[in-house]
Write a structure and sequence with these properties.
about 850 residues, alpha+beta, Kinesin, 10-stranded mixed beta sheet, binds adenosine-5'-triphosphate
Length: about 850
């Protein structure tokens, strides 16, 4: 009877699937977006999560242990009785599983057709879909989900799903499809955004969290990237792939040790703008970490920790699946792990869910295979009643807001006419009005007018904006004057490669000065101004100068002409003036990042000096990071000043307390000499003066305690700010180095190649690629395009995206190598020379 029921269900499912496929995708979406209710297909028999098994190809398939059924759905496992079981051996020896399909010796294309194609086309019709790969480490989960990123033919489910979506979208005439992408990694129960910019990926501030919102579960802080074509989406996938945490492992050297969730968000709307409805859905593609046993992997240290996290989260996933499959269960344990929490609305329920269980065919892995098949069966029991997400009116909410704004504007106009305030305007400023405000601000600054009349909020905002522009211009001017006059010239002339270290050392000293003693705090301002304020001769803090002297003597470099002590004192005054002009004398402690100059730079010096280039970089490409650096620096200086002031206050409180204690002692002495009075309880009666002294002392003690706590807090904050500043400085310098190498500096032989008659024609090859001539991916791509692509036109986006990712990686490697060889003059970077690119010919 059970088998009959199963059969009926299967037939029903197949019929529905056929019906879905028969109907034109676009017309289904149009129907959903229209105001008429979609007919039929309302009362479907409950579906289940589909479970497929994919066997990794092997030459040693254990035929006697793993038997694949001829129906291509059943699989039997046979394990010989343990000889240790004795005469009465009841342990089970064979197991039989029936799932939705076996994928044995199946191509990637076939896997996609069987597992994902229908789910993806239903996602375009508003159904959420989830595909999850589960299995032992190295069994082929990533191969199934992503495939090989170097070969088009072996691409996995994700690139194929992307292709299908964009292909369908291009065929729709009346429906507009918007696609967005996110890529989340769960590693040791921590969430990572694989597509976040490098700067923010590991940042504490960028920490992600799983939130249960009214619209479902989402990951707060996860970046979601709009993509307009296949190549762009694939490039994001490849980029995310390179960011995955890879760890050495005895079973699989490139084994991924994390769960990865690639999500494609789809939004369909009618091109007919009178229809404001929008249909949203998402496809969640999950590549789980390997379900290996700790004892078998023989891992230790970090990998063992990873494995224990993986096993825990997979066991929570199993518990979740068991609970989902049990209709009587009221509580579903979603929150047990990050993985299960993130997948709360992606398993079963209203969404189409497919599980691919990857297994090995070899005898040695049969136990894991058995446990993977058990998981697949459990998952197969989970019921799912997929329903499309309801279309919603996006523009409608915008319209409501627009109407409200209009109403409020009218109310304001009425209010103003009642209060006789006709100058009030609520429209954006025109160019002429902006120009007028600018001229007013300039007049105000020159003293031509004494006040700027306030008209409305927009005008006030514009006035402030203009002030900011002028302030920024002045800051830059003053800064470049300072740099060109003092700091930079020294750096060029001394060619000191250790200046950067010295800066860091000095900062450390500043830090200690701030947190230790008050006297140190006194000196801090002086020491802090060294880099800018002191003459070019001594970028070394005073305390360090003596220690460094001997080293300097030994150094073969001759000191720059400005190294005499006398000149140092002379050059101090104008710098101080400039500082005051810039920030009211606040520029005291933390120096600007200085460029680590190098010997090879001396040899390969381009017409633009490195420091000039740095100035330019800060104003243009590095403007934002430089601004952040400066902001952080200001905050740090303010905190240090406050800390200084609090320390002084504490000292003065201490002195006052000492004085009061002395006065109290004197008062006591006097009382004893004059004879003291006692009350009925035998307690000494003190006079008013002594009482007021005691109260004062108590008050001072409280103040002292509060001050001390504030000082402690400030110390912690200063330390934190300092770390931020260090990070910022390093980032600014490294970004500059890359930019500089890319835009200004070219190795001699590359320059030669660029000369007329050389191998490269200027302007034809981007400079970043000039650095890796030995790996011309572009050329390879063009060659492949000419020969093989006509047979496989669909692969263009795939290879273009792959090439883009390869180029980026090669460029990053080259730049890293460039930075390393700074001390070897004239060397051409040969990044990647040893290792060929993973770009393979089209097959
Ligand atoms: N069906 C297959 N055909 C060809 N090669 C395969 C197949 N399945 C897996 N492989 C190869 O086996 C190796 C391991 O596969 P893969 O990285 O996909 O395993 P995994 O299950 O994702 O491992 P992990 O759990 O460590 O992430 C890869 O080199 C992959 O190319």
């Amino acid at each position: 009877k059970f088998q009959e029921q199963e059969k009926e269900k299967e037939q029903e499912q197949e019929q529905e699937q056929e019906q879905d496929e028969d109907q034109d995708e676009e017309s289904i979406i149009s129907l959903l977006l229209s105001d008429t209710e979609p007919k039929g297909k309302k009362h479907r028999a409950p579906k289940r999560v589909l479970a497929f098994v994919r066997v990794k190809p092997t030459a040693h398939f254990a035929q006697d242990m793993i038997r694949l059924g001829s129906d291509n759905k059943s699989i039997e496992i046979y394990i010989q009785k343990s000889p240790r079981g004795g005469a009465v051996n009841n342990s089970q020896t064979d197991w039989s599983f029936k799932l939705d399909g076996l994928l044995h010796n199946t191509s990637q294309e076939m896997v996609y057709e069987t597992v994902a194609k229908g789910l993806v086309s239903r996602a375009l019709q508003g159904y959420n879909g989830t595909i999850m790969c589960y299995g032992q480490t190295g069994a082929g989960k990533t191969y199934t989900m992503t495939g090989t990123t170097s070969e088009y033919r072996n691409r996995g489910i994700i690139p194929r799903a992307i292709q299908q979506i964009f292909k369908s979208a291009a065929e729709f005439l009346n429906i507009m499809v918007t696609v967005r992408i996110s890529y989340l990694e769960i590693y040791n129960e921590a969430l990572f955004d694989l597509l976040a910019p490098a700067l923010g990926r590991g940042c504490k501030e960028n920490q992600l969290s799983v939130i249960d919102g009214p619209q479902g579960v989402y990951v707060k802080g996860l970046s979601i990237h709009p993509v307009s074509h296949e190549e762009e989406a694939l490039h994001l996938l490849f980029e995310g792939e390179t960011n995955r945490v890879i760890s050495e492992h005895s079973l699989n050297k490139n084994s991924s040790r994390s769960h990865c969730i690639f999500t494609i968000y789809i939004e369909c709307r009618s091109r007919d703008y009178t229809n404001h409805k929008c249909l949203k859905s998402k496809i969640t593609l999950i590549d789980l970490a390997g379900s290996e046993r700790l004892s078998k992997t023989g891992s230790d240290g970090q990998v063992r920790v990873e494995a224990s996290y993986i096993n825990k989260s997979l066991s929570f996933l199993e518990q979740l699946v068991i609970a989902l499959a049990d209709p009587k269960r009221e509580h579903i344990p979603f929150r047990q792990s990050k993985l299960t929490h993130v997948l709360k609305d992606s398993l079963g329920g209203k969404c189409n869910t497919v599980l691919v269980t990857n297994i090995y065919g070899e005898a040695e892995h049969v136990e894991e295979t058995l446990s993977s098949l058990r998981f697949a069966t459990r998952m197969n029991w989970v019921t799912a009643e997929p329903v499309p997400n309801g279309p919603f009116y996006q523009e409608a909410s915008v319209k409501v807001l627009e109407e409200e704004i209009q109403l409020l504007k009218q109310e304001l106009i009425m209010q103003n006419s009642l209060t006789d305030n006709s100058l009030m305007s609520y429209n954006p400023l025109t160019t002429a009005q902006r120009a007028e405000i600018k001229s007013q601000v300039q007049k105000y600054l020159r003293g031509v007018i004494e006040e700027i009349d306030i008209v409305n909020v927009r005008q006030i905002q514009e006035v402030f904006r203009q002030f900011k522009v002028i302030l920024n211009q002045q800051e830059e001017e003053v800064e470049s004057r300072l740099w060109s006059k003092y700091g930079l010239r020294y750096m060029i002339e001394s060619g000191s490669s250790s200046s950067f270290d010295l800066c860091l050392e000095k900062e450390q000293e500043d830090m200690e000065g701030t947190t230790d003693k008050d006297e140190d705090l006194e000196q801090e301002d002086d020491a802090g101004t060294l880099e800018i304020e002191s003459p070019p001769t001594s970028p070394i803090p005073r305390g360090k100068r003596e220690a460094k002297k001997d080293d300097e003597k030994e150094s073969s470099r001759s000191p720059p002409p400005e190294t005499s002590q006398d000149e140092s004192s002379q050059s101090k005054t104008p710098t101080t003036d400039l500082e005051e002009e810039e920030e009211g004398g606040d520029q005291d402690s933390d120096e600007e990042p200085t460029i680590p100059s190098s010997e090879d730079f001396q040899n390969l010096r381009p017409p633009v000096s490195k420091q000039e280039a740095f100035e330019l970089f800060k104003k243009v490409t590095g403007q934002e990071i430089h601004r952040i650096f400066r902001d952080n620096k200001r905050i740090l200086i303010a905190k240090k000043k406050r800390s200084h002031a609090v320390a002084q206050e504490i000292n003065s409180l201490k002195q006052q307390m000492e004085a009061i204690k002395e006065a109290l002692e004197a008062q006591k002495q006097k009382r004893r000499q004059e004879g003291q009075y006692m009350d009925e309880k035998g307690q000494v009666i003190i006079d008013e003066e002594e009482f007021s002294l005691i109260l004062k002392l108590k008050g001072l003690k409280e103040e002292h305690r509060a001050g001390f706590t504030e000082l402690q807090d400030l110390k912690a904050e200063i330390q934190y700010c300092q770390q931020l500043l260090d990070k910022c400085r390093k980032r600014l310098i490294s970004e500059f180095e890359i930019w500089y190498n890319e835009n200004v500096r070219l190795p001699k032989d590359v320059k030669k190649a660029l000369e007329p008659g050389g191998n490269i024609r200027p302007g034809m090859v981007p400079l970043k690629r000039v650095m890796c001539l030995d790996e011309d991916v572009q050329d390879k791509f063009e060659r492949v395009q000419e020969t093989a692509l006509p047979d496989c036109p669909g692969s263009v986006s795939f290879y273009k995206a792959r090439m883009k990712t390869d180029q980026k990686q090669t460029f990053n490697r080259t730049m890293a190598a460039l930075r390393k060889i700074h001390r070897k003059p004239g060397l051409v970077p040969a990044a990647g020379k040893k290792k060929g690119l993973s770009f393979l010919p089209l097959t």
